[in-house]
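Take a look at the protein record below with the fold in mind.
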Amino acid sequence: MADDRTYTASEAARALGISLDTLRRWDRAGRISVQRDGANRRVVSASEITRLRGERGEAMSARNRFPGTIRSVTTEGLLTRVEIDVTEPVRVVAIITSEAAQDLGLRAGGPATAVVKATSVMVSG
């Protein structure tokens, strides 16, 4: 059964861990699919929030998420270096265990989300 709930722009921004201004910029850039309600306010579907969060049911408290495309995956011993070109004009590089990279099925050209929390960068496939 599809989730057809919609959320206000501020609720959606909070769920995505972004500012309302960022949500508005994403809307103008076509990076997020929004509808308009009867009062011409932005509303975002639950399925669009799920798509952008890349959720598989896991809960993460990190608020800074950067969806992007993997540029390279380089394994050396127990560690794997994952380089992600995020959709913002920046690149995020994470050093994760080789086992985690394998479990996530990371490969160059595949989708990934860099999740930034404190001084660590986590990778979500």
